[in-house]
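Quick one, T. Sequence first:
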Amino acid sequence: MTKQEIYARHGIEFKEGKINYNGRWINELLKQGNSKTGKNVWTWSMMPGNNGKGTCACTCVGCYAMTGFYRMNSVVASLELNTDIVNNNIDFFYRAISAQLECIGRGEIRIHAAGDFNTSNPMEYANTWHRIASENNTFIFWTYTKVKQFETLFDDLNNANIVKSVIPGVGINYGKCEYIINAYLTLKEMGESVYICRCGIDKNQHCENCGVCANYKYVLFIEHSTDYKAETDPLFDKVKELITRQ
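Structure tokens:
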């Protein structure tokens, strides 16, 4: 079956690499991964932050999704379109994602490389992702959320996981080296399984050959913003030491 036929079966017109959304030809919704995630990881993003347009529960200091690449006009336009589709045509969103997954066949899906579940229809949106994951068991899905009510969304699925972005007794799950060290040790003392992301430290480590975010509830990330370079932090070596002991 051709890609055009697969999309047509889901009620969507496909032509020359684009899909028809309300008479407008747009790119397919999932984006193929980059050198950091790996090409077998596909991503979905929406507007970050809590600024009237964003889909997050708050706007965090040092948020990578509100700096650098994410400030490019083309990227902002894409995130705004994705957010509009979810807010106003969740059925199209479901059909377009389902068709694209059928075309891809298998792989890994990172939900919310930017953004969160705080849409105009959060429960319907979250349940749509649950439905998509349950219907596509050749894929592994993972996401992160600061919205407590969705932390257990995927608990009944074997191929999907949610990482807690806000950790009780600790705070958010990313920060500078000192913060990461303290958060890691606190969680260990609490008897929790925790992992520090090694992406950016180990150049051979990518999301597609890692699997941590698909399995752990607690994953810590070193801040990677334009204003903070972890490798120049005096405590960077201590973080690397903790990573090697994981």
